Amino acid sequence: MVDLSIERKAKGEKKVVAGLGGDASSEPARPESFRAVKDRLYSRIEGLDIAPDLGADIGSRRWFRGLGTFVGLSVVALAFWPDFAPLEAAPPLPDDQQVRSEYRSQMIMPLGLGADTGRRMGPTALVRPLAEAPERPQMQMLATLGRGDSLDRTLRRAGIGSAEADEVASLIGRAVPLDELEPGTQIDITLGRRPEPGATRPLERLSFRARFDLELKVDRMDGDGPLSLTRRIIRVDETPLRIRGTVGDSLYRSARAAGAPASAVQAYLKALGTQVNLQRDVRATDTFDMIVSHRRAATGERQAGQLLFAGLERGSRGAVQLMRWGSDGDFFDADGTGEEKGGLVAPVPGRMSSSYGMRRHPVLGYRRMHAGVDFRARHGTPIVAVTDGLVTGAGRMGGCGNAVRLRHANGVDTRYCHMSRIAVNRGASVRRGQVIGYVGSTGLSTGPHLHYEMYRGGKAVNPASVSFVTRKQLSGEELTRFRDALGTLRDVEEGAALADLTPTADEVASEEPEREIDKLDKPRPIG
Protein backbone atom coordinates (compact mmCIF):
# COMPACT_ATOMS: atom_id res chain seq x y z
CA MET A 1 0.00 0.00 0.00
CA VAL A 2 1.08 3.50 -0.75
CA ASP A 3 0.92 6.11 1.97
CA LEU A 4 -1.38 8.73 0.54
CA SER A 5 -0.47 11.37 3.16
CA ILE A 6 3.12 11.33 2.03
CA GLU A 7 2.06 11.52 -1.55
CA ARG A 8 -0.21 14.49 -0.86
CA LYS A 9 2.53 16.30 0.95
CA ALA A 10 4.76 15.72 -2.03
CA LYS A 11 2.15 17.19 -4.33
CA GLY A 12 1.62 20.13 -2.06
CA GLU A 13 -1.94 19.44 -1.18
CA LYS A 14 -3.54 20.96 1.86
CA LYS A 15 -5.67 19.27 4.43
CA VAL A 16 -8.59 21.34 5.53
CA VAL A 17 -10.22 20.71 8.83
CA ALA A 18 -13.98 20.87 8.62
CA GLY A 19 -15.55 23.81 10.28
CA LEU A 20 -12.26 25.76 10.97
CA GLY A 21 -11.19 26.66 7.49
CA GLY A 22 -7.63 26.36 8.61
CA ASP A 23 -4.66 24.64 7.31
CA ALA A 24 -4.73 21.14 8.62
CA SER A 25 -1.04 20.73 7.91
CA SER A 26 0.12 24.03 9.79
CA GLU A 27 1.52 23.80 13.35
CA PRO A 28 0.13 25.93 16.26
CA ALA A 29 1.85 29.48 16.66
CA ARG A 30 4.34 29.94 19.49
CA PRO A 31 3.61 32.77 22.04
CA GLU A 32 5.70 35.97 21.60
CA SER A 33 8.40 36.79 24.20
CA PHE A 34 7.86 39.54 26.87
CA ARG A 35 10.70 41.60 25.46
CA ALA A 36 9.15 41.66 21.97
CA VAL A 37 5.75 42.71 23.37
CA LYS A 38 7.34 45.47 25.46
CA ASP A 39 9.31 46.83 22.51
CA ARG A 40 6.22 46.90 20.30
CA LEU A 41 4.23 48.66 23.07
CA TYR A 42 6.92 51.32 23.60
CA SER A 43 7.14 52.00 19.88
CA ARG A 44 3.39 52.61 19.68
CA ILE A 45 3.46 54.92 22.76
CA GLU A 46 6.31 56.93 21.26
CA GLY A 47 4.28 57.37 18.13
CA LEU A 48 1.37 58.90 20.04
CA ASP A 49 1.23 62.71 20.05
CA ILE A 50 -0.15 63.12 23.60
CA ALA A 51 1.21 66.59 24.51
CA PRO A 52 1.67 68.68 21.38
CA ASP A 53 3.29 72.09 21.58
CA LEU A 54 0.54 74.68 22.20
CA GLY A 55 2.78 77.40 20.79
CA ALA A 56 2.72 75.91 17.27
CA ASP A 57 -0.11 75.28 14.75
CA ILE A 58 -2.58 77.31 16.78
CA GLY A 59 -6.18 76.51 15.76
CA SER A 60 -5.44 73.13 14.15
CA ARG A 61 -6.94 69.78 15.20
CA ARG A 62 -3.63 68.80 16.73
CA TRP A 63 -3.57 72.05 18.77
CA PHE A 64 -7.15 71.52 20.09
CA ARG A 65 -6.23 67.94 21.03
CA GLY A 66 -3.29 69.23 23.06
CA LEU A 67 -5.52 71.87 24.71
CA GLY A 68 -7.91 69.17 25.75
CA THR A 69 -5.06 67.18 27.28
CA PHE A 70 -3.93 70.27 29.23
CA VAL A 71 -7.42 71.00 30.55
CA GLY A 72 -7.93 67.39 31.56
CA LEU A 73 -4.68 67.18 33.48
CA SER A 74 -5.51 70.49 35.22
CA VAL A 75 -8.90 69.17 36.33
CA VAL A 76 -7.27 66.03 37.71
CA ALA A 77 -4.70 68.12 39.62
CA LEU A 78 -7.37 70.37 41.14
CA ALA A 79 -9.39 67.32 42.14
CA PHE A 80 -6.50 66.13 44.33
CA TRP A 81 -5.87 69.64 45.88
CA PRO A 82 -5.85 69.48 49.71
CA ASP A 83 -8.70 70.88 51.72
CA PHE A 84 -8.56 74.38 53.31
CA ALA A 85 -9.89 73.24 56.65
CA PRO A 86 -8.09 74.68 59.74
CA LEU A 87 -5.27 72.61 61.17
CA GLU A 88 -5.33 71.29 64.65
CA ALA A 89 -3.25 73.39 67.09
CA ALA A 90 -2.12 73.05 70.68
CA PRO A 91 -4.86 73.37 73.24
CA PRO A 92 -5.30 76.85 74.77
CA LEU A 93 -3.82 77.75 78.16
CA PRO A 94 -6.08 76.44 80.91
CA ASP A 95 -8.01 79.18 82.66
CA ASP A 96 -6.75 78.15 86.07
CA GLN A 97 -4.99 80.50 88.51
CA GLN A 98 -2.75 77.77 89.82
CA VAL A 99 -1.66 76.67 86.35
CA ARG A 100 -0.97 80.27 85.23
CA SER A 101 1.05 80.88 88.38
CA GLU A 102 3.10 77.77 87.60
CA TYR A 103 3.74 79.01 84.07
CA ARG A 104 4.85 82.42 85.31
CA SER A 105 7.20 80.91 87.84
CA GLN A 106 9.14 79.38 84.95
CA MET A 107 9.31 82.58 82.87
CA ILE A 108 12.58 84.43 82.27
CA MET A 109 12.11 88.08 83.22
CA PRO A 110 14.44 91.07 83.81
CA LEU A 111 15.92 91.55 87.25
CA GLY A 112 14.25 94.95 87.42
CA LEU A 113 10.83 93.22 87.41
CA GLY A 114 11.66 90.92 90.30
CA ALA A 115 13.39 88.06 88.56
CA ASP A 116 15.69 85.77 90.49
CA THR A 117 17.97 82.82 89.87
CA GLY A 118 15.72 80.32 91.65
CA ARG A 119 12.48 78.65 90.63
CA ARG A 120 10.38 81.75 91.23
CA MET A 121 11.78 83.80 88.37
CA GLY A 122 8.90 86.23 88.03
CA PRO A 123 6.78 88.23 90.49
CA THR A 124 3.71 86.53 91.81
CA ALA A 125 0.45 88.06 92.96
CA LEU A 126 1.95 88.57 96.41
CA VAL A 127 4.41 91.14 95.07
CA ARG A 128 3.15 94.71 95.47
CA PRO A 129 4.90 97.81 94.06
CA LEU A 130 6.42 100.29 96.48
CA ALA A 131 4.69 103.61 96.87
CA GLU A 132 8.06 105.40 96.69
CA ALA A 133 11.35 103.77 95.77
CA PRO A 134 14.32 104.90 97.87
CA GLU A 135 17.12 106.77 96.06
CA ARG A 136 20.82 106.57 96.54
CA PRO A 137 22.14 109.33 98.80
CA GLN A 138 24.88 110.18 96.30
CA MET A 139 25.50 109.83 92.59
CA GLN A 140 29.03 109.85 91.18
CA MET A 141 29.67 110.31 87.48
CA LEU A 142 32.40 111.26 85.05
CA ALA A 143 31.56 113.94 82.46
CA THR A 144 33.75 114.61 79.40
CA LEU A 145 34.06 118.03 77.78
CA GLY A 146 33.37 117.59 74.08
CA ARG A 147 34.89 119.44 71.15
CA GLY A 148 33.04 122.72 70.58
CA ASP A 149 31.07 122.25 73.81
CA SER A 150 30.93 124.64 76.75
CA LEU A 151 31.48 123.83 80.40
CA ASP A 152 28.01 124.87 81.57
CA ARG A 153 26.26 122.71 78.95
CA THR A 154 28.41 119.73 79.95
CA LEU A 155 27.46 120.21 83.61
CA ARG A 156 23.74 120.49 82.78
CA ARG A 157 23.84 117.24 80.82
CA ALA A 158 25.42 115.59 83.86
CA GLY A 159 22.38 116.51 85.96
CA ILE A 160 23.50 119.74 87.62
CA GLY A 161 20.87 122.47 87.80
CA SER A 162 21.14 125.53 85.56
CA ALA A 163 21.81 127.94 88.44
CA GLU A 164 24.56 125.78 89.93
CA ALA A 165 26.08 125.09 86.50
CA ASP A 166 26.37 128.84 85.81
CA GLU A 167 27.84 129.39 89.28
CA VAL A 168 30.44 126.66 88.79
CA ALA A 169 31.39 128.05 85.35
CA SER A 170 31.80 131.51 86.88
CA LEU A 171 34.05 130.18 89.67
CA ILE A 172 36.23 128.20 87.27
CA GLY A 173 36.43 131.15 84.86
CA ARG A 174 38.19 133.16 87.57
CA ALA A 175 40.98 130.59 87.79
CA VAL A 176 41.47 129.71 84.11
CA PRO A 177 39.87 130.99 80.87
CA LEU A 178 37.07 128.63 79.91
CA ASP A 179 38.09 128.64 76.23
CA GLU A 180 41.48 127.17 77.23
CA LEU A 181 39.90 123.98 78.58
CA GLU A 182 40.91 121.26 76.15
CA PRO A 183 38.34 118.89 74.62
CA GLY A 184 38.40 115.53 76.34
CA THR A 185 38.85 116.99 79.83
CA GLN A 186 37.21 114.62 82.30
CA ILE A 187 35.26 116.07 85.23
CA ASP A 188 34.56 114.08 88.41
CA ILE A 189 31.09 115.03 89.68
CA THR A 190 29.34 113.99 92.91
CA LEU A 191 25.65 114.87 93.33
CA GLY A 192 23.85 114.78 96.69
CA ARG A 193 20.37 113.73 97.80
CA ARG A 194 17.32 115.46 96.35
CA PRO A 195 15.73 117.93 98.78
CA GLU A 196 12.28 116.84 97.60
CA PRO A 197 10.82 114.42 95.04
CA GLY A 198 11.30 115.64 91.46
CA ALA A 199 13.89 118.27 92.40
CA THR A 200 17.39 118.46 90.91
CA ARG A 201 20.17 116.86 92.88
CA PRO A 202 22.51 119.46 94.45
CA LEU A 203 26.21 119.49 93.61
CA GLU A 204 28.45 118.24 96.41
CA ARG A 205 31.89 118.02 94.77
CA LEU A 206 33.46 118.64 91.38
CA SER A 207 37.12 118.27 90.42
CA PHE A 208 39.11 118.11 87.20
CA ARG A 209 42.55 118.79 85.73
CA ALA A 210 42.29 122.25 84.17
CA ARG A 211 45.90 122.25 83.01
CA PHE A 212 48.83 119.92 83.33
CA ASP A 213 50.02 121.95 86.31
CA LEU A 214 46.64 122.96 87.78
CA GLU A 215 43.83 121.00 89.39
CA LEU A 216 40.56 122.72 90.33
CA LYS A 217 38.04 121.55 92.89
CA VAL A 218 34.57 122.95 93.63
CA ASP A 219 32.80 121.80 96.80
CA ARG A 220 30.82 123.03 99.80
CA MET A 221 32.19 123.77 103.24
CA ASP A 222 29.05 122.27 104.81
CA GLY A 223 25.94 120.56 103.52
CA ASP A 224 23.92 123.63 102.56
CA GLY A 225 26.76 126.15 102.29
CA PRO A 226 27.82 128.04 99.17
CA LEU A 227 30.13 126.57 96.55
CA SER A 228 33.83 127.40 96.86
CA LEU A 229 36.78 126.93 94.50
CA THR A 230 40.06 125.35 95.53
CA ARG A 231 43.19 125.61 93.38
CA ARG A 232 45.90 123.00 93.58
CA ILE A 233 49.15 123.91 91.85
CA ILE A 234 50.97 120.78 90.73
CA ARG A 235 54.75 120.88 90.56
CA VAL A 236 55.95 120.14 87.02
CA ASP A 237 59.47 119.37 85.84
CA GLU A 238 60.25 120.24 82.21
CA THR A 239 63.50 118.35 81.70
CA PRO A 240 63.61 117.38 77.98
CA LEU A 241 63.63 113.73 77.03
CA ARG A 242 66.72 112.64 75.10
CA ILE A 243 66.55 109.47 72.99
CA ARG A 244 69.58 107.93 71.27
CA GLY A 245 70.13 104.73 69.38
CA THR A 246 71.59 103.00 66.34
CA VAL A 247 69.81 103.43 63.02
CA GLY A 248 69.86 99.72 62.13
CA ASP A 249 67.63 98.45 59.33
CA SER A 250 65.04 101.24 59.68
CA LEU A 251 65.54 104.65 61.24
CA TYR A 252 61.82 105.02 61.96
CA ARG A 253 61.40 101.59 63.58
CA SER A 254 64.60 101.95 65.61
CA ALA A 255 63.50 105.34 66.98
CA ARG A 256 60.04 104.02 67.85
CA ALA A 257 61.58 100.98 69.54
CA ALA A 258 63.73 103.33 71.61
CA GLY A 259 60.58 104.98 73.00
CA ALA A 260 60.24 108.08 70.80
CA PRO A 261 56.65 109.24 70.10
CA ALA A 262 55.43 108.76 66.55
CA SER A 263 54.87 112.51 66.02
CA ALA A 264 58.42 113.28 67.20
CA VAL A 265 59.91 110.66 64.85
CA GLN A 266 58.03 112.11 61.90
CA ALA A 267 59.23 115.62 62.75
CA TYR A 268 62.77 114.26 63.14
CA LEU A 269 62.72 112.66 59.68
CA LYS A 270 61.27 115.82 58.13
CA ALA A 271 63.93 118.07 59.70
CA LEU A 272 66.75 115.67 58.91
CA GLY A 273 65.58 115.35 55.30
CA THR A 274 66.36 119.03 54.68
CA GLN A 275 70.07 118.39 55.33
CA VAL A 276 70.81 114.85 54.14
CA ASN A 277 69.37 112.28 51.78
CA LEU A 278 67.67 109.77 54.07
CA GLN A 279 67.93 106.98 51.49
CA ARG A 280 71.57 107.45 50.48
CA ASP A 281 73.42 109.31 53.27
CA VAL A 282 72.13 107.42 56.34
CA ARG A 283 73.85 104.14 57.21
CA ALA A 284 72.84 101.37 59.59
CA THR A 285 75.84 102.11 61.87
CA ASP A 286 74.93 105.79 62.32
CA THR A 287 73.52 107.02 65.64
CA PHE A 288 70.33 109.05 65.80
CA ASP A 289 69.93 111.64 68.56
CA MET A 290 66.65 113.41 69.27
CA ILE A 291 65.48 115.58 72.15
CA VAL A 292 61.75 116.01 72.78
CA SER A 293 60.10 118.48 75.13
CA HIS A 294 58.82 116.54 78.10
CA ARG A 295 56.91 117.40 81.24
CA ARG A 296 56.43 115.23 84.31
CA ALA A 297 54.10 116.16 87.14
CA ALA A 298 54.59 115.44 90.80
CA THR A 299 51.38 113.39 90.67
CA GLY A 300 52.96 110.96 88.17
CA GLU A 301 51.52 112.12 84.85
CA ARG A 302 53.82 112.64 81.88
CA GLN A 303 53.38 114.60 78.68
CA ALA A 304 55.64 114.54 75.60
CA GLY A 305 55.68 117.57 73.32
CA GLN A 306 57.34 118.63 70.09
CA LEU A 307 60.78 117.80 68.78
CA LEU A 308 63.48 120.26 70.01
CA PHE A 309 66.72 118.76 68.65
CA ALA A 310 67.47 116.46 65.72
CA GLY A 311 70.96 115.02 65.45
CA LEU A 312 72.69 112.31 63.46
CA GLU A 313 76.22 111.11 64.22
CA ARG A 314 77.90 109.78 61.06
CA GLY A 315 81.51 109.29 62.16
CA SER A 316 84.04 110.79 59.73
CA ARG A 317 81.28 112.02 57.42
CA GLY A 318 80.36 114.74 59.89
CA ALA A 319 77.49 115.13 62.36
CA VAL A 320 74.13 116.80 61.70
CA GLN A 321 72.77 119.02 64.48
CA LEU A 322 69.47 120.86 64.11
CA MET A 323 67.58 122.75 66.82
CA ARG A 324 64.13 124.33 66.77
CA TRP A 325 64.32 128.09 67.27
CA GLY A 326 62.06 131.11 67.04
CA SER A 327 58.33 131.69 67.12
CA ASP A 328 57.86 129.98 63.75
CA GLY A 329 59.40 126.74 65.00
CA ASP A 330 62.03 126.53 62.23
CA PHE A 331 65.11 124.32 62.56
CA PHE A 332 68.61 125.82 62.39
CA ASP A 333 71.95 124.06 62.21
CA ALA A 334 74.83 124.67 64.61
CA ASP A 335 76.00 127.68 62.54
CA GLY A 336 72.60 129.40 62.80
CA THR A 337 71.56 128.68 59.21
CA GLY A 338 67.90 127.84 58.70
CA GLU A 339 66.37 125.23 56.45
CA GLU A 340 65.60 125.94 52.82
CA LYS A 341 62.01 126.76 51.97
CA GLY A 342 60.56 126.92 48.50
CA GLY A 343 58.37 129.86 47.60
CA LEU A 344 54.71 129.60 46.68
CA VAL A 345 54.09 128.72 43.04
CA ALA A 346 50.90 130.77 42.76
CA PRO A 347 49.87 133.82 44.80
CA VAL A 348 46.18 132.80 44.58
CA PRO A 349 44.46 129.38 44.56
CA GLY A 350 43.41 129.25 40.92
CA ARG A 351 44.53 128.04 37.52
CA MET A 352 46.51 130.19 35.09
CA SER A 353 44.27 131.77 32.46
CA SER A 354 46.88 133.70 30.43
CA SER A 355 50.60 133.01 30.11
CA TYR A 356 53.67 135.20 29.63
CA GLY A 357 54.39 136.52 26.09
CA MET A 358 52.89 138.38 23.12
CA ARG A 359 49.11 138.43 22.90
CA ARG A 360 46.15 140.53 21.80
CA HIS A 361 45.11 142.84 24.63
CA PRO A 362 41.46 142.15 25.55
CA VAL A 363 40.75 145.86 26.24
CA LEU A 364 43.05 147.82 23.92
CA GLY A 365 42.49 145.45 21.01
CA TYR A 366 46.04 145.29 19.57
CA ARG A 367 48.95 142.89 20.10
CA ARG A 368 51.47 143.75 22.76
CA MET A 369 53.74 142.07 25.30
CA HIS A 370 51.98 140.45 28.24
CA ALA A 371 54.72 140.91 30.88
CA GLY A 372 53.23 138.52 33.44
CA VAL A 373 50.73 135.74 34.01
CA ASP A 374 47.03 135.91 34.85
CA PHE A 375 45.32 133.73 37.45
CA ARG A 376 41.58 133.17 37.39
CA ALA A 377 40.03 133.82 40.81
CA ARG A 378 36.80 135.08 42.30
CA HIS A 379 36.32 138.64 43.47
CA GLY A 380 37.67 139.03 47.02
CA THR A 381 40.01 136.01 46.95
CA PRO A 382 43.06 136.68 49.20
CA ILE A 383 46.38 137.36 47.42
CA VAL A 384 49.56 136.26 49.26
CA ALA A 385 53.25 137.13 48.84
CA VAL A 386 55.21 134.40 47.07
CA THR A 387 58.20 134.91 49.39
CA ASP A 388 59.58 137.32 52.01
CA GLY A 389 59.97 140.90 50.85
CA LEU A 390 59.57 144.63 51.38
CA VAL A 391 56.58 146.61 50.12
CA THR A 392 58.00 149.25 47.74
CA GLY A 393 54.65 150.33 46.33
CA ALA A 394 51.00 150.04 47.31
CA GLY A 395 48.29 152.01 45.49
CA ARG A 396 46.99 152.95 42.06
CA MET A 397 49.40 152.02 39.24
CA GLY A 398 47.89 153.00 35.86
CA GLY A 399 46.49 150.08 33.88
CA CYS A 400 47.31 147.72 36.76
CA GLY A 401 44.70 149.45 38.89
CA ASN A 402 45.18 148.86 42.60
CA ALA A 403 48.53 147.06 42.87
CA VAL A 404 51.25 146.08 45.31
CA ARG A 405 54.97 145.90 44.42
CA LEU A 406 57.40 143.85 46.54
CA ARG A 407 61.22 143.89 46.62
CA HIS A 408 62.84 140.52 47.34
CA ALA A 409 66.44 139.32 47.73
CA ASN A 410 68.89 139.15 44.79
CA GLY A 411 67.27 142.07 42.95
CA VAL A 412 63.93 140.35 42.32
CA ASP A 413 60.69 142.39 42.31
CA THR A 414 57.08 141.17 42.01
CA ARG A 415 53.89 143.11 41.30
CA TYR A 416 50.27 142.09 41.92
CA CYS A 417 47.66 144.00 39.89
CA HIS A 418 43.87 144.63 39.62
CA MET A 419 43.26 144.32 43.37
CA SER A 420 39.89 145.23 44.82
CA ARG A 421 41.51 146.10 48.17
CA ILE A 422 45.10 146.47 49.38
CA ALA A 423 46.04 144.93 52.75
CA VAL A 424 49.60 146.30 53.26
CA ASN A 425 51.27 149.70 53.37
CA ARG A 426 54.40 150.92 51.65
CA GLY A 427 57.57 150.24 53.64
CA ALA A 428 56.14 147.23 55.50
CA SER A 429 57.90 143.86 55.57
CA VAL A 430 55.86 140.83 54.55
CA ARG A 431 56.44 137.12 55.07
CA ARG A 432 55.98 134.29 52.64
CA GLY A 433 52.25 133.46 52.49
CA GLN A 434 51.10 136.73 54.09
CA VAL A 435 47.94 138.29 52.62
CA ILE A 436 48.77 141.54 50.79
CA GLY A 437 45.46 142.19 49.03
CA TYR A 438 42.30 140.80 47.47
CA VAL A 439 41.35 139.93 43.88
CA GLY A 440 39.41 142.56 41.97
CA SER A 441 38.95 144.08 38.49
CA THR A 442 40.43 147.57 38.76
CA GLY A 443 42.39 149.18 35.91
CA LEU A 444 42.40 147.72 32.37
CA SER A 445 40.56 144.52 33.23
CA THR A 446 37.58 142.67 31.78
CA GLY A 447 36.77 140.71 34.96
CA PRO A 448 38.06 139.65 38.37
CA HIS A 449 41.52 138.10 38.10
CA LEU A 450 45.12 138.58 39.29
CA HIS A 451 47.85 139.85 36.99
CA TYR A 452 51.19 138.75 38.48
CA GLU A 453 54.50 140.17 37.23
CA MET A 454 58.15 139.50 38.12
CA TYR A 455 61.26 141.57 37.39
CA ARG A 456 64.92 140.72 37.82
CA GLY A 457 67.30 143.65 37.65
CA GLY A 458 64.46 145.79 36.28
CA LYS A 459 63.71 143.43 33.35
CA ALA A 460 60.50 141.42 33.11
CA VAL A 461 60.88 137.63 33.37
CA ASN A 462 58.38 134.80 33.13
CA PRO A 463 57.11 134.15 36.69
CA ALA A 464 56.42 130.52 35.85
CA SER A 465 60.14 129.92 35.25
CA VAL A 466 61.29 131.17 38.67
CA SER A 467 61.29 129.14 41.90
CA PHE A 468 62.05 130.96 45.15
CA VAL A 469 64.24 129.41 47.81
CA THR A 470 64.64 131.19 51.15
CA ARG A 471 67.13 130.42 53.92
CA LYS A 472 67.31 132.28 57.23
CA GLN A 473 70.60 133.17 58.89
CA LEU A 474 70.92 134.06 62.58
CA SER A 475 73.42 136.71 63.56
CA GLY A 476 74.48 138.93 66.43
CA GLU A 477 72.92 138.47 69.84
CA GLU A 478 70.31 136.08 68.51
CA LEU A 479 73.05 133.75 67.23
CA THR A 480 74.73 133.89 70.66
CA ARG A 481 71.50 133.00 72.44
CA PHE A 482 70.89 130.22 69.92
CA ARG A 483 74.28 128.64 70.55
CA ASP A 484 73.83 128.86 74.33
CA ALA A 485 70.47 127.09 74.08
CA LEU A 486 71.98 124.45 71.80
CA GLY A 487 74.78 123.80 74.29
CA THR A 488 72.25 123.41 77.10
CA LEU A 489 70.25 120.88 75.09
CA ARG A 490 73.32 118.85 74.20
CA ASP A 491 74.16 118.54 77.93
CA VAL A 492 70.84 116.79 78.66
CA GLU A 493 71.51 113.23 79.82
CA GLU A 494 69.88 110.35 78.03
CA GLY A 495 66.80 109.12 79.94
CA ALA A 496 67.12 111.72 82.70
CA ALA A 497 63.50 112.77 82.24
CA LEU A 498 62.21 109.23 82.87
CA ALA A 499 62.97 109.21 86.61
CA ASP A 500 60.15 110.00 89.04
CA LEU A 501 60.13 113.33 90.80
CA THR A 502 61.17 113.23 94.42
CA PRO A 503 58.27 114.59 96.53
CA THR A 504 58.97 117.68 98.59
CA ALA A 505 58.26 117.99 102.29
CA ASP A 506 55.09 119.99 101.64
CA GLU A 507 53.83 117.38 99.20
CA VAL A 508 54.45 114.58 101.68
CA ALA A 509 52.64 116.51 104.42
CA SER A 510 49.64 117.22 102.19
CA GLU A 511 49.16 113.60 101.20
CA GLU A 512 46.20 111.90 102.82
CA PRO A 513 47.04 108.85 104.95
CA GLU A 514 46.38 105.55 103.26
CA ARG A 515 43.42 103.65 104.66
CA GLU A 516 43.65 100.00 105.55
CA ILE A 517 40.74 99.14 103.29
CA ASP A 518 42.58 100.66 100.30
CA LYS A 519 45.53 98.37 100.92
CA LEU A 520 43.39 95.34 100.10
CA ASP A 521 43.13 96.39 96.45
CA LYS A 522 46.89 96.53 95.98
CA PRO A 523 48.74 93.46 94.71
CA ARG A 524 50.76 91.73 97.37
CA PRO A 525 54.45 91.13 96.71
CA ILE A 526 55.50 87.55 96.28
CA GLY A 527 58.57 86.64 98.36
From TrEMBL:
Start and end residues of each Csd3-like second N-terminal domain = 242-348
The family database entries (InterPro entries) matched by this protein are listed as: Cell_wall_metabolism_enzyme, Csd3_N2, Dup_hybrid_motif, M23ase_b-sheet_dom
Keyword annotations for this protein? Hydrolase, Metal-binding, Metalloprotease, Protease, Signal, Zinc
Q: Which cofactor does it need?
A: Zn(2+)
> Compositional bias (Basic and acidic residues) at which positions?
516-527
List each copy of the M23ase beta-sheet core domain by range: 368-463
Protein location? Cell envelope
The UniProt record lists the keyword Ribosomal protein: no
In terms of PANTHER family, this protein maps to: L-ALA--D-GLU ENDOPEPTIDASE (PTHR21666:SF289), PEPTIDASE-RELATED (PTHR21666)
Q: What is this protein called?
A: M23 family metallopeptidase
Species of origin reads Qipengyuania aurantiaca
